[in-house]
Amino acid sequence: MASNNENYLLEMVDSLPEEVAGWRKAEPEVYPPESLYRYINGGAELYIAYQYTTLVSQPYLDADGNEMRFDIFDMGSPASAFGVFCHSREAIDDFVAPDVESEYASGLLHFWKGPYYASVLGYPETAAKKAAIQEVARQIAAQIDSESRRPAVVALLPEADLVPYSIRYFRHHAWINDYHHFSDENLLNIGGDTEVAMAKVASATAEARPAVLLVVQYQTPTAAEAAEQEFMRALLAKGSDGLQQQEDGTWLGCHRTDELLVVVADAPDQKTARQLLVGCTERSRENQPEGPR
Amino acid sequence: MKDKKRSGMTRRVFLRDASIATLGGSLLLGARQPVLGWAAEAVATTKAAAADAKATSDTTAMSDVVLVRNLDVLDDEGEPRAEVVLEMLDTAVARLTGQKEALEGWHTLIKPDDVVGIKSNVWSPIGTTEQVEQALRTRVIDTGVAAEDIGISDRGVLNDPVFKRASALINARPMRTHHWSGVGSLIKNYIMFVTDPYNYHEEACSRLGEIWTYPVVKDKTRLNVLVMFTPQFHNVGPHGFSPRHVWQYHGLIAGFDPVAIDTVGVKIIKGMRNEYFGEERPLSPSPQHIAVADTKYGLGTSDLDRINLIKIGYDEKSFC
């Protein structure tokens, strides 16, 4: 029996135009998590890790049988949709709409709105194909009336100081090394109920590389404390007081308050490292973040 | 019979617009004498050599890895030229086996009574390529193997009649980044030899090397070829293919040690990422299955200091 999520997505694609610039709509396909492996060769785990619930793939075919597929994932929450979009994007544009975060490049479009993440590849890129992609994508986005609210934990990052488009959000330890290699182990015990916001903080000088900042929101102070101790045991020397200079001169450290653990790496100096750690904690007190929706 | 599935987008079309990026600097690692026993008596000594390598893994074992690059390998539309592919492959095999002529080298790898499975990779945007598959098949035939005793397959290896009775395997695939395992590698290419590939996905697929210890493939691999014509160094979207993150590298890496080749491949991919992003950008997840294939399963070496990298041909921006 089809789920409500599935029915909603099927209704969404049903209302898309039958033909766009010579591309005719074909039968949609539905992929729940247990069958995603059949559709995505080797990439299913990413979406499963972000806890998607349903994928509807809507193909459009041209007269020669070439295909463009609009893959629309119900990610279960805006947080997960935001997270999977952030996972690999390098920029954000308004290709779909001013209020929709998207990225279009070389025929590949992906965007998120509300709890939905969508992607389509029109390659090789042509002006006509690009226009068709834009038209269908806009119609998809227009049907989504959910708010594109970012996860609350992301607001704890110092947004004004971040390297543009560097924010990542995830709930699986596999991506903790995106900007700095901490460990192949799950040092911070990041699991399904733990949220991580990560970004690079621009350096004050051109010579220094950006610092890497992680804000990890645990369910309980006990869980956060255990992760803090494991992180310090594995990466910091005894007596380092949560902050230590590395061989390359940069600073690595962590700071915990209640269920929030903040980690900094590649900081150019001790003062900057401490400011970044404390700043997140202070914003936490000010913002009183909500949990995932 | 091959099990290729071709999408509407052909490789030729895709490659025509693929990015060409260059910049350079390369370091030829110091030539060392190979001690892994994979030369003239490679077939006969496969097991012994592996055992030797394992036994001496902490001391002197070195793995030869040959990187051949040729700017002519891709035509104006980015399609591999079959004759250049064959030439590159021959160059690599001759060097690897220490033979003057490539065919002599091939004779040390494959015997006429072998049944040979060529394990390919059919991902449509960037696959092993038909040109590489056919170059391998041509040389296997040249060693005297009957055409009906040669199979080329990827997802159908467990049901392919040739693979079912294969005495020898040739492992050939491209390298590309991967959302879950870090990279698609030679080690990972054997995942189709198990019926439950999804059970090898935990911890960034770190257990993939175990597959190489299963009877269906164990000690059968005579040659590994990492196709680096157009590797992809970053993934975007559910299908992973991102045209702007494809690099025309014009390379082919061959060797007997899949771990060593993958290690070199990862170094190259990392170099491309750092170059493109303009900063250190680690692979995420880290391709730990390659190191684990070394440390836990003893399939080869992931230590660059124990890899004898032999670079032949074009050497700009090699990243290794």
Structural overview:
- The complex is a heterodimer of chains A (293) and B (320).
- With 293 residues, chain A is of the alpha+beta class.
- Chain A has seven helices and 14 strands.
- In chain A, a hairpin with a 5-residue loop joins strand 4 and strand 5 (67-74).
- Chain B is α/β, with parallel strands linked by helices and 320 residues long.
- Chain B has helices at 11-16, 46-55, 82-97, 102-109, 130-142, 161-164, 202-205, 258-277, 288-295; strands at residues 63-69, 116-119, 150-153, 168-178, 182-184, 221-232, 251-255, 307-313.
- The radius of gyration of chain B is 18 Å and the shape is globular.
- The termini of chain B are far apart.
- The chains are: A alpha+beta (293), B alpha/beta (320).
- Chains A and B meet through helix 3 and strand 5 of A and helix 1 of B.
Briefly characterize the structure:
Chain A has 293 residues and is α+β, with helices and mostly antiparallel strands. Chain A is 27% helix and 26% strand.
What are its keywords?
heterodimer, A: 293 residues, alpha+beta, 8-stranded antiparallel sheet, 7 helices, 14 strands, 26% strand, elongated, B: 320 residues, alpha/beta, 8-stranded mixed sheet, 8 strands, globular, disordered N terminus
